[in-house]
């Protein structure tokens, strides 16, 4: 079944007098994981704030400070599966430039500037579209998106002017943060700091840059920017334009991820769950919308290399005392499987659990 051809959400909301969303965008029957708390304003707060990691203490702190951060990472990855990173070293002006560049891309007036990137799939180099590039779900998602492969080969849209240079600098900066975070996470598992990086060929990792555009929605209680899902890969780093909308599923409830300005929100992804044999869990999350402000989020998904076969790490299985809970699978094959399945509430991990 082909996804129906639809206009972008941006085009839809720019029509005068829009007071109701088209029926195709209404999640009339939400999945069990999406039924509770449809709006951003209604979502509850966690029993404590989402943990914060001071990146500078991991990379240049004293031995005692670094040891404390690694212990914190162990506890956070087990209990939360996500955290915010401050003092990460990526210049604030670069963060502002990448957000501005994404807004300019979505604002390009000439449809031909973006048309060549339409209708692409997950492993294509550049993809621009609306709702989803996977199989159709029960409703369309209230978002437009741009997805670009930025590593190991770098790609970029030709416009807006200067965007390519900003995207290259930003994605390189994110890779540096990911490298050091994976080093700390490796040590938190009792491994050498370079273990995950080497074992999963992160030097040649597939890095996907995804910009999401969520314009105001006249009926936010009926629509979703993205339904509940987990991400493939190892770590996703997310930033936004100051408008909240990311929600996490925690202890059976949806909570708001109120991201600190200038911070990266970091979440554990499916393949770190596989590698750790479930010790560190991939985070279920979704994007809700509002009726006042446009939200732009940037998610950078950092995975193994496409040809890496990911399986539970033998050194973490205790010489056979623990059974592998996941079947091995090449990362490329997992991505192709992932984008054959509906995003709505279904984790691709369920297909490789033993």
From TrEMBL:
Residues 204-304 form the Fe2OG dioxygenase domain. Keywords: Iron, Metal-binding, Oxidoreductase. This is Protein DMR6-LIKE OXYGENASE 1-like. It comes from Punica granatum. The lineage of its organism: Eukaryota, Viridiplantae, Streptophyta, Embryophyta, Tracheophyta. One of its GO terms (molecular function) is oxidoreductase activity. It holds the Pfam family DIOX_N. SUPFAM superfamilies: Clavaminate synthase-like. Transmembrane segments: none annotated. Belongs to the iron/ascorbate-dependent oxidoreductase family.
């Amino acid at each position: 079944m082909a996804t129906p051809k639809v206009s972008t959400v941006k085009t839809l909301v720019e029509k005068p007098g829009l007071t109701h969303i088209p029926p195709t965008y209404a999640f009339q029957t939400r999945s069990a994981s999406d039924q509770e708390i449809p709006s951003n304003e209604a979502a509850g707060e966690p029993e404590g704030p989402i943990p914060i990691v001071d990146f500078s203490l991991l990379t240049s702190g004293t031995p005692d400070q670094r040891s404390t951060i690694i212990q914190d990472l162990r506890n956070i990855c087990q209990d939360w599966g996500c955290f915010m990173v401050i003092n990460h070293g990526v210049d604030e002006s670069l963060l502002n430039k990448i957000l501005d560049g994404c807004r300019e891309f979505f604002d390009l007036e000439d449809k031909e500037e973006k048309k060549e990137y339409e209708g692409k799939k997950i492993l294509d180099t550049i993809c621009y579209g609306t709702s989803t590039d996977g199989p159709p779900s029960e409703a369309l998602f209230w978002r437009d998106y741009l997805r670009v492969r930025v590593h190991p080969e770098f790609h970029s849209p030709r416009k807006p002017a200067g965007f390519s240079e900003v995207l290259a600098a930003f994605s390189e900066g994110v890779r540096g943060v990911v490298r050091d975070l994976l080093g700390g996470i490796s040590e938190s598992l009792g491994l050498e700091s370079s273990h995950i990086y080497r074992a999963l060929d992160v030097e040649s990792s597939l890095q996907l840059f995804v910009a999401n555009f969520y314009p105001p929605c006249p009926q936010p209680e009926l629509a979703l920017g993205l339904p509940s899902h987990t991400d493939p890969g190892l770590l996703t780093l997310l930033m936004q334009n100051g408008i909240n909308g990311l929600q996490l599923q925690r202890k059976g409830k949806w909570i708001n991820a109120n991201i600190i300005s200038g911070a990266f929100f970091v979440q554990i992804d499916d393949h770190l769950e596989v590698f750790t044999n479930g010790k560190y869990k991939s985070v279920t999350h979704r994007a809700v919308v509002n009726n006042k402000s446009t939200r732009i989020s940037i998610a950078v998904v950092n995975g193994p290399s496409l040809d890496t076969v990911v399986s539970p790490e033998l050194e973490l299985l205790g010489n056979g005392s623990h059974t592998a809970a996941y079947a091995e699978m090449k990362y490329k094959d997992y991505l192709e499987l992932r984008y054959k399945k509906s995003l709505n509430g279904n984790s691709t991990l369920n297909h490789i659990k033993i």
